[in-house]
């Protein structure tokens, strides 16, 4: 299915004027400072809250934060949780915060915990997949990244050389088909295929290190909170063949995905579906928390 987009000429990649036209149409719809930053700073009583970077977009300035468990030790593996790489994916941001707030203390004896709750605050405020330069941060985790969001997150995470696990929290939404995929097709001057949106939670593993049992453990934990997306009639999710129930694989490194930015042995990207009639905001947040809990419980079980 080909979907027209109101910016640019069909079949022609966007020029700078097109990108400026797109940016001019974006508006602030919610507050990063009020909804996210205040919650992160409130964690400072029990965790180390570090500012690892800053974004300056016109009149808008955003501080970028990491939250760390305090009892860091070389004798413990380090666990990374990231949210808000795509700022519009709300439960990824609030799920990351809720995990460290409600569950972090249960795991800090076994793990060093690092959480980057909102990598793309401008995207959070404007409910966008891209940054103001019409760049997708979750295709930009590579050397000399053109996305400031990705570049600063990578620079911070690079100082942790003992990462064992990375859980990257995302959503798949109906606006992926109604807005973001048509915009992507228009920007790149290509046709747009309208994929089926899976009704339910699923995971994206890494083709280079799929860790089948690890992904299974996360699915089983999330099932306690929300339903898992069934494959379509072709045995696929978002056009990709399933690896197992609720799991597909991407080459996260080749594609420049956030989950591919480290050498962690256990990695996954979550995909919650907030537009499901069977879900709500709280279910989505708790589904994200369950994803991290399932991941850490699996790793703990490996040492038992």
UniProtKB/TrEMBL annotation:
InterPro entries: DUF2817 (IPR021259), Peptidase_M14 (IPR000834). SUPFAM superfamilies: Zn-dependent exopeptidases. Residues 28-304 form the Peptidase M14 domain. The keyword Glycoprotein does not apply. It holds the Pfam family DUF2817. Keywords: Carboxypeptidase, Hydrolase, Protease. One of its GO terms (biological process) is proteolysis. It comes from the Bacteria. One of its GO terms (molecular function) is metallocarboxypeptidase activity. Belongs to the peptidase M14 family. This is Zinc carboxypeptidase-like protein. It comes from Pseudoalteromonas phenolica.
